[in-house]
Amino acid sequence: MIVLHLNQNNLVMKNVLAFGLFCSLFVSCKKELSSALTDAERDQTVATDNSLAESYSDDVAVISDEAYNNNALITRSGSSGGSLMGDTVRITRNSADSSITIDFGSVGITGRDGRVRKGQIIIKFTNGYRKIDASVSQTFNNYAVDGRQLTGTRTVTYKGLDSLDRPYWTIVANLNVTKSAGRVVTWNSTRTRIMSQGYNTPMNWTDDEYLISGSATGLTSNGDSYSLTIGKSLRVKVGCRFIIDGTIEYIRGTRNTLIDYGYGGVVSCDGQALVTLPSGITVVVNL
User: Residue 6 CA to chain centroid, in angstroms?
Assistant: First the structure.
């Protein structure tokens, strides 16, 4: 078994990094950089880039829920003990167009989850929030998380309660995440999100957990296109930036790769996953 410690660029060998830096000046850089990588490296990049996009999409959902649930606030500053976002985030409500703007400023604010966010998330409501088929659109204005810019749209539709009386939503997301050196991850997904824990304590984010199912297509930061299907529902816990449990099968060309987020245990926020490559080789990644 191979263990890799992965950040946004370290899948690429030194000579490939140098090549990528050189060819970044040309239009064909992504295609050439992708062809310079081994198939195993490209498969692993699919897994890590998709995990990054998944994480940022889930993060927007949590922040939007928190902003909406602060019903009494027109703007907020000062202490807010149950808040994920931090104490100095500005929340502005506009009843004229049924919108909420969440403003992290131009410098950035560190949330209680350790992430640094800056810019704005703009939320617009159609037919309320917790009404059946009510929808929420989310867009971004110079919004970035930990130095990576997020653009695109998310549309969230509330569907009511499932058979276990848990609230659930459908989510359509079309997002781009810009990583270092301007390399972009493109992610288009259709999801069902069930709030499996914490729905009885709306003002406390620390006990919130979600189960996510669905599919997606995307383009990695190396220029490879892929599709995926969630097998075992992804388990996301607020305050942990990593997916805790669940499986995803990726298809890149004729290659199928499986990633298991439950590797290393499903209790702690360890950021580990087990990737099974098309060759059958398993690789432990630290996301």
Answer: 17
